[in-house]
Design a protein that fits this description.
Length: 64
């Protein structure tokens, strides 16, 4: 089982969201991984699972 790690810009493109919405998701508890003094990375499967559990769905834009 391969996990896909993305940086913030790649995740925004994959989910078709803005960086503003990305930071709102992070503030709401979206999982991410970060080494000290490094940028955050996101496991795509973890993020998709979190979005589903948090009640978000995508029609044209992500909403609850």
């Amino acid at each position: 089982m391969t996990s896909i790690l993305l940086n913030g810009k790649q995740l925004c493109k994959q989910l078709n969201i803005s960086t503003t919405l990305l930071y709102k998701f992070r503030k709401a508890g979206m999982p991410y991984h970060q080494l000290p003094h490094s940028r955050a990375y996101y496991n795509l499967k973890e993020v998709q699972k979190w979005l589903a559990q948090a009640g978000y769905h995508q029609e044209k834009t992500w909403s609850k």
